[in-house]
Amino acid sequence: MSGAGRTGRLPRALRIAVAAALASALFPHLARAQMYVGSTAPHAGSVEVSAGASWAAAYELNARNAEETRNTGSGSDPFVLFATKSRVTAGTGGQVRVGLYLTHSLMVEGGVHYLRPSLDTRVTSDVEAEGTVTATERLTRYVVDGSLVAHLTPLSFAGGHGVPFVLGGAGYLREVHARSELIETGREFHGGAGLKVWLGGGAPRFGVRVDVGVSSRHGGVDFDTARRTVRTAGASLMVLF
Amino acid sequence: MRRAAALLLGAAVVSCLSVPAIAYLKLGTRIGTRTVTMKWAQLPIRYLVTNRGVPGVTAAQFEQTVTRAFHTWDAVPSAVVSSEFVGFTLSSPASGDGATVLGFQNRPELDRTLAATSFMVDTTTGAILEADIFFNSSFSWSVAAQGDPSGFDLESIALHEIGHLHGLAHSAMGETELRAGGRRVIAAESVMFPIAFAAGSIADRTLKADDIAGISDLYPAAAFNRETGTISGKVTKNGAGVLGAHVVAFDPRTGKLIGGFSLSDDGSFVIAGLDPGPHVLRVEPLDDGDIESFFDVTLNIDLDFRVKVYDTIVVVPRGGGTSGIDIKVQPK
Questions:
Q1: Which of B197, B203, B315 sits opposite A137 (nearest CB)?
Q2: Is pTM beyond 0.90 here?
Q3: Is there a contact between B280 and A64 if contact means CB atoms under 8 Å apart?
């Protein structure tokens, strides 16, 4: 019977998978060599989730003097009661990203960053007080962004474990003052590059991701309307499904 | 009331009802144990002008100049005030006749007073019924477009006095120095600072942020309460409240300076009319003018503390207030 004849045999696809698994177990160095480049994962539809630390550099705000109008005969420049110089300090926090592979090397991802920088205003040259005072407050910054990630598969190394990537995208900026009295929102565009190192093969598999970039921002906590550029960096653990 | 440069002012108000000036940027009148803000209940403010000129300023020029000053206050977008010139009168600017009159008067005995405002107030409501401003013709006056060093700028002084006429008290937003014969203003950032700039200066033809906050706090347009906010708190020294501390909110985005005072024994203060966003607070003793220029002489104003910059940035919400600010100052 033809039916009986097929009973003891595995389907062709399953046989190939079993053979690949055996090969992977017996010759792991060969399997690793194909983990990224030329492998079946990631592929269109693969999902990558990462979580880790996020950092954004400090940026300077305008220096502004507290000025009064001089009386006639007291000079022509404004009278400076005191001088201020403000900055938003570097912030550290966390990030979570979820990515969807469109192809073997292209991925779209969305992420949320949470950071806690400070707004510092340094007060100097007070005409009636000695010394310098820095007035400060803690900010809470959220960035919700989306990016297109291009993996540079021809540049992969370490047997395919490591793969550099570049990314670019845009996001929404939400910065909350210390006592939530005021929320300042803005937009950002970003670009960057990074490196992923996978710690295993197949899917699901784990890895480490680091990236650096620049974010061009408008709005949020700022003292003028010009765009500003902020350096960013991140390090995450990731898992590919 | 505004005095000549190099000289100090007396009380802010010369009133037939002797109302004290003890409220933040605003004049007040005591009704029993409470203080009621003095303000006009009915607008526009209808005023007459004394049909009398002085050397260098005709009656017509006087009217045109004070009308410009009224219009400067009327034009503040965050406030609802208006005025109307009714006509010339032969009457002098004197209280009690039911008419609001502005004009020159020769008052040589007031050798340090350029001009002064007096009021008639409904003591049950605080409503201003009448206000009169006299400009002391024993001084030289100028209406020159670019100012004239031989005379005090009439428009600048009128703008200050009309601020009083609306119900504003003096601002302490200025710096002075003591010289032989009196105190001289070095710089100021409020038209309502009690000491005038030198003759020839036209700098006080323009309202500053502190003036705009004051008039808007007194006669707020709907947008004022919606778009600006307040900071409130206490100034304390060794655990006790400081009365009469000058608290200045500085907006590091715009450079605006807006001030207020701690007005009670527990050191409480409120500063209104602030743009939303971060502010730096600076507290100083009221040492750039006579205390009587700002407060009732019976109050025990504390001048014995050092200037202090609060080490926390205070953020003003839009249409709300940030409260509970506790600024501790140190004795000198």
A1: B315
A2: no
A3: no
Query: How is residue A233 written in tokens?
Result: 């960096």
What DSSP line would sit under B55-111, residue for residue?
TTB-HHHHHHHHHHHHHHHHT-TTB---EEEEEEESS-S-TTSS-EEEEEE--TT-T
pLDDT digits (tens, 9 = 90+) for B44-89: 999 999 999 999 999 999 999 999 999 999 999 999 999 999 999 9
- Which residues numbered 274-303 in B keep a CB inside 8 Å of some CB on A? 276-278, 280-282, 284
Q: Please state the rounded mean pLDDT for residues A134-163.
A: 94
Q: Is residue A39 scored above 90 in pLDDT?
A: no
Tell me whether strands B257-261 and B246-250 are parallel, antiparallel or unpaired.
antiparallel
CA A120 from centre of chain: 24
| Closest alpha carbon to A124 in A76, A60, A63 | A63
Q: Which residue of B has its CA nearest to A87?
A: B252
Q: What is the ipTM of this complex?
A: 0.90
- B152, B179, B315, best to mutate vs chain A, most A CBs in 10 Å: B315
Q: What is the mean pLDDT of chain A?
A: 85
Cis before A42? omega within 30: yes
Q: Per-residue confidence at B294, pLDDT binned at 50, 70, 90?
A: confident
**Pairwise CA distance, residues B29 & B121, whole Å:** 8
Write b or e for each residue in B315-330: b if 16 or more Cβ atoms lie within 10 A of its Cβ, otherwise e: bbbeeebbeebebbbe
Work out the minimum CA distance from B321 to partner chain A, whole angstroms. Answer: 8
Q: How far apart are CA B6 and CA B195, in angstroms?
A: 8
Residue A14 in this model has a pLDDT that exceeds 90:
no
**Comparing C-alpha atoms, which of A172, A175, A191 is closest to residue A183?**
A175
Residue B308 has phi, psi (to 5 degrees) of: -135, 130
For position A203, what pLDDT does the model report?
Answer: 76
